[in-house]
Amino acid sequence: MSTQTVSPAVSPAVPAADSTSGDDRRSAAVRGLEHEIGTMLRRIRRGLGERAVQVHPELNTTSYLLLSTLNEQGARRAADLAELFSLDKGSVSRVVHQLVELGLVERTPDPGDGRASLLSVTPETVRRLGEVHGQRREHFDDRLVAWTPQEIEDLAERLGRFNLALGD
């Protein structure tokens, strides 16, 4: 069995630039992008699950994402989280119940609507998420040790441009 060595800068799904032209080249480039995004999404899903368990052994990926959002964006109503994540209110309610039971989220009355409550992370959650996020940044830094700061900035800029192109 032979092994193929691929430069980390070139996707195996994208033919060399001079082997195609015009629409064929663009189509091949989009296929290569799709392949790389798929690989990245699998890694992200695995990483989210690993980070969720680091915060609390009973957390799943969805709970971790909601918790991280509350940490980053501040107090929110459950209905706002449901809309943000395109989840039904019942699903968010179950996740919120779990997060409250685990002591990771607190409910406080919403000053704008006495019938609703605001959800916010506890100080312990802020600490745990800070540790996990610090470990994630160290992991990225270790993996990108051969990259220059400019290359990292360029990737971040292009990912930002890509995310804008996709919109919400």
Your description of this structure?
β1 and β2 (113-121) form a beta hairpin. This protein has one domain: Winged helix-like DNA-binding domain superfamily/Winged helix DNA-binding domain (Arc Repressor Mutant, subunit A, Orthogonal Bundle), CATH 1.10.10.10. The longest helix has 34 residues, at 22-55. With 168 residues, it is mostly helical. It has helices at 22-55, 61-73, 78-85, 89-101, 123-143, 149-166, and strands at residues 105-110, 113-121. The termini are far apart. It is built from 6 helices and 2 strands; from the N terminus they run ααααββαα. Mean pLDDT is 89; it is low at 1-11. The protein has a two-stranded antiparallel ribbon. The chain is 64% helix and 9% strand.
Topology:
Blueprint: H1 22-55, H2 61-73, H3 78-85, H4 89-101, E1 105-110, E2 113-121, H5 123-143, H6 149-166
Helix pairs in contact: 1-2, 2-4, 3-4
Brief summary:
By secondary structure, this protein is mostly helical. The protein has helices at residues 22-55, 61-73, 78-85, 89-101, 123-143, 149-166; strands spanning 105-110, 113-121.
